[in-house]
Specification:
- The complex is a heterodimer of chains A (521) and B (364).
- Chain A contains 20 helices and 12 strands.
- Chain A has 521 residues and is an alpha/beta fold.
- Chain A has a 6-stranded parallel β-sheet with strand order 3-2-1-4-5-6, sandwiched between helices. Chain A has a 6-stranded parallel β-sheet with strand order 9-8-7-10-11-12, sandwiched between helices.
- The C terminus of chain A is likely disordered.
- Chain B is built from 16 helices and no strands.
- Classes of the chains: A alpha/beta (521), B mainly alpha (364).
- Chain A: It comes from Kitasatospora saccharophila.
Chain lengths: 521, 364
């Protein structure tokens, strides 16, 4: 099967060794042909993919300086302006959300015909269209009318977000998305744009895998972004519409956790087409941590910033120490917010525990960090990714965590959950474990087994093997005419076995013949 | 022990007797700013989750999940923009004298060899020095641009305690530098040295005919630099205009005014330095001294190639007219030929500069 992996990653996984998540997937499914399509920042050199066994890597510069190119001719400019106006209308008019998808596909179609889309979106004509629609009565400008500077900034950002529409990736050639049997979007966001267009153009189904939702990160990130209210509203509306359109069109959604699934469902993901696939990690093969340290030690790891709430751990530790004077706390991690380390030190001093708290900075590796303690403590206010929790569980140490985000589903019955912002509850849980060696080791072992079962790489690979096969069996071999029903099992299974030298019939068939053939079959 | 919360807080779900009738009110007061500035209920939901509120926390406020609670908060608080919102960034005022100094330096530099050795080697040296000065200015601009954009690189090795996902793109926190300038045209910025070389050659030619006028024109480069920087700053500060039409109305007479001011400055300089120059000398002084201003505006508007070609055309035309044969054949004075050759490109450039100078795209 020919699979197009679409991702927007500045450091796509190179640093995780073995090519990260995509690398593990490609390694695990050698029977399929993978091609990687990456969206990269334009102003930095592209890092290596780190993924072995790819049949091709295609890159598109995004986020930065616009690539050169001429604008549309005067005649076609009107069509561009109309489509762009429709798109903006769908973003700013609360009642016209339905026009988003059609406007997007229309822009993609226009851009494919004359490759003038980026230049048009950066031109004064686009600015005028944007301003006219944005200032129409009925547009959602409750937080302030857009000014000229807002129009410019929003137009720039929209132009950058829409760059994948004019990527040279469409078409039914070997390197085109139309030649793929399915697209796999890793990470969501603008990376889903090519998949949406390929689905519209060529009828290629796509799968969306998200570990940490793109949309949620945008909502979090834009709160501190240096943009005025109207720009934030427009851009977040764009990301929300894009996400909803993606979830609506995706054949299968594979969020990494139940917590992410709830968000996806909130944004229009169909529960029937959603399947949770936990993120696999190679750390499952790691041996369990060795002997516990002599002194009863709590370990805390994470970036030192208010969101991870190391203060809670310090306050809880002060209570633990009052009961258990030999106890120690080891804090791993570097400053995430400037001056926060000094703040934490000051708190430790104020609580009178500075001699028992060690700010150990960056450890040699996560395994070394967990090994240095008897109990691992997570005190964060929000836990969006299961990765660090799973890593701690794999060490075989008992875990105490605040009950936020993914912790309940990841820990399950193998750890202690406490409410956030409650030093007393956290201290009680830590003391209960520190005083009971048998319970500690029992929970630690149970946690390790649970994490090994849920976060191994093999189940991920197996899940996607099934999903891919299930998906292509439900889609016809040739692009169906929009609106016609896709016929399952229109082809025998052998059809999908990727041939080595003989090109698949889908490549030979001219595009125009597609619907006719699909009908004839 | 199971996953049940180890907690001593009262059971959630139903408010205890004596609990406030409107439990959301308290949360609303604590998060009023967030709710007023939110663009979407999901933004409130994300913020509530960041502050440690989970599903069972939402139950305390009689909601099944955080989303329902966020929608109630969004509906109950009217939108209000923050009182102090970031306005478009403009260049600081201290860049104006710097720009003036730079303008004067780039014009005085080629004048030195043109007057001291003089002749053909002096002209060639002036040309080279002008190109070098133009290139230096351009490199400084590019360096500033890179600083503006900043770099954000994440940790390249395996320790990622924050659980940030390198595959997940959204972690960049939405801070995309909005950079709508025209695209770069290849690795070497040829328009920059060309735009420096043109005035260098023109000044060398003028110095051969009328050294006083040449000095006045070179000193006028300071005014051109100042005026171009002022225009850029003024345009940037007008980003707070309500509509594009209003912006255009405010900027319509900015460039003509800047050109008039530059002409007045040149007249003053000419009167002080080269008061006894002939009429053709005056004409050459005014044309040459004003040419850098529209050239800078056109360059800033994203068409450095156009500016460079116009300046080079003027220089080439002037050099051609200064050759012995055409000069003899036309019977014109050297300064007259110079003024005639530079006038056309200068007028064309001014015509090219005016329309984009009234649009906001030229000031970024």
């Amino acid at each position: 099967m020919r699979i197009a992996l679409l991702t927007e990653g500045t450091l796509t996984n190179a640093q995780r060794g073995e090519g990260g998540w995509c690398g593990r997937l490609v390694d695990g499914l050698p029977e399929h042909e993978f091609r990687l399509y990456r969206l990269l920042p334009a102003d930095r050199p592209a890092p290596p993919t780190g993924v072995r066994g790819l049949h091709g890597v295609h890159e598109l510069p995004m986020w930065g300086r616009r690539p050169g190119g001429r604008g549309p001719t005067a005649l076609r400019r009107r069509a561009y302006a109309r489509a762009y106006g429709e798109l903006v209308r769908a973003l700013v008019m609360p009642g016209e959300r339905a026009g988003f998808g059609p406007a997007l596909y229309r822009l993609a179609e226009l851009g494919r015909e004359d490759e003038a889309l980026p230049a048009f979106l950066a031109s004064g004509h686009a600015h005028r269209v944007l301003e006219r629609v944005w200032r129409t009565p009925g547009a959602d400008t409750a937080g302030g009318q857009p000014l000229v500077c807002d129009v410019l900034v929003a137009a720039d950002l929209l132009e950058q977000c829409l760059r994948p529409l004019s990527a040279p990736w469409y078409g039914t050639g070997a390197a085109g998305l139309g030649g793929a049997d399915l697209c796999h979007v890793v990470g969501g966001g603008p990376a889903a744009l090519p998949a949406l267009v390929a689905r519209e153009l060529h009828g290629v189904p796509f799968v969306v895998t998200e570990h940490g939702l793109h949309l949620r990160e945008q909502y979090r990130g834009y709160r501190s972004a240096p943009y005025r209210w109207p720009v934030r509203a427009l851009l977040l509306s764009f990301f929300r519409q894009l996400t909803e359109e993606t979830y609506r069109r995706a054949a299968v959604l594979t969020p990494g956790s139940e917590y992410d699934r709830q968000w996806q469902q909130r944004c229009g993901g169909d529960p029937a087409r959603t399947r949770i696939v936990h993120e696999g990690t190679t750390a499952t093969g790691r041996p369990a941590a060795g002997k516990e340290p002599e002194a009863p030690t709590l370990v805390w790891a994470g970036a030192l910033e208010p969101g991870r709430d190391p203060e809670l751990a310090l306050h809880a530790f002060a209570r633990v120490r009052a009961e258990l004077p030999a106890a120690r706390l080891r804090v791993y991690g570097e400053e995430g917010a400037p001056g926060y380390l000094a703040h934490c030190r000051a708190i430790a001093e104020r609580l009178g525990v500075e001699d028992a708290v060690e700010f150990a900075g960056r450890p040699d590796g996560p395994a070394a960090a967990w090994e240095s303690g008897s109990v691992v403590v997570f005190s964060a206010l929000a836990q969006r990714s299961p990765r660090l929790l799973a890593d701690a569980m794999l060490s075989g140490r008992a875990v105490v965590a605040t009950e936020v985000g993914v912790t309940r589903e990841v820990l399950g019955p193998t750890g202690l959950l406490v409410p956030p912002r409650s030093p007393r509850a956290l201290a009680t849980a830590c003391l209960a474990l520190l005083n009971d060696h048998e319970r500690r080791s029992r929970l630690g072992l149970a946690g390790r087994l649970r994490a090994q079962e849920r976060f191994a790489v093999e189940p991920v690979v197996g899940a996607f093997r099934e999903i891919y096969l299930d998906l292509v069996s439900r889609y016809p071999a040739f692009p169906a005419r929009p609106g016609t029903q896709a016929r399952p099992f229109a082809r025998p299974a052998e059809y999908w076995v990727a041939g080595g030298t003989t090109p698949a019939p889908a490549e030979q068939a001219p595009r125009a013949a597609g619907p006719a053939l699909a009908e004839a079959l | 022990m199971t996953g049940a919360p180890v907690t001593s807080t009262p059971a959630t779900g139903t408010p205890a007797t004596g609990a406030p009738a409107d439990p959301v009110r308290e949360l609303l007061d604590a998060n009023r700013d967030l709710c007023e500035q939110a663009v979407d209920p999901l933004e409130i939901a994300a913020a509530l989750e960041d502050s440690g509120l989970a599903a069972d926390g939402a139950a305390r406020y009689r909601h099944a999940d955080v989303f329902g609670l966020a929608e109630e908060l969004y509906a109950r608080v009217p939108r209000r923009p923050p009182t102090r919102e970031p306005l478009p960034p403009a260049e600081p005022r201290r860049t104006l004298p710097l720009a003036a100094l730079r303008g004067a330096a780039t014009h005085l530099l080629p004048l030195l060899p043109a007057t001291t050795p003089g002749g053909l080697p002096g002209g060639a040296l002036a040309l080279l020095l002008g190109a070098g000065a133009g290139l230096l200015t351009a490199r400084r601009d590019r360096g500033r641009e890179r600083e503006d954009r900043g770099t954000e690189d994440r940790d390249p090795d395996g320790w990622d305690p924050d659980g940030r996902d390198p595959d997940a793109p959204g972690t960049d926190r939405g801070e995309r530098a909005a950079d709508g300038r025209a695209p770069g045209r290849g690795p070497f910025p040829w328009p920059a040295p060309a735009q420096g070389a043109g005035p260098g050659l023109l000044l060398a030619l003028l110095a051969a005919g009328d050294p006083g006028a040449a000095l006045a024109a070179a000193l006028g480069g300071a005014g051109a630099g100042w005026a171009a920087a002022w225009l850029r700053r003024f345009g940037q500060r007008q980003g707070s205009a309500a509509t594009l039409g209003e912006f255009r109305a405010r900027l319509r007479f900015a460039l003509p005014l800047a050109v008039l001011a530059q002409l007045a400055l040149l007249a003053g300089l000419g009167w002080a330095v080269a008061g006894d120059a002939p009429a053709t000398g005056w004409a050459a002084l005014l044309v040459l001294g004003t040419l850098p201003l529209p050239a800078a505006v056109v360059r800033d508007a994203g068409r450095p190639g156009t500016a460079a070609v116009a300046v080079l055309t003027a220089a080439a035309g002037a050099a051609l007219l200064a050759l012995p044969a055409p000069a003899h054949w036309l019977g014109a004075s050297p300064t007259g030929g110079l003024a005639a050759a530079a006038l056309g490109p200068a007028l064309l450039l001014a015509g090219c500069a005016w329309p984009p100078s009234t649009g906001p795209g030229a000031y970024r």
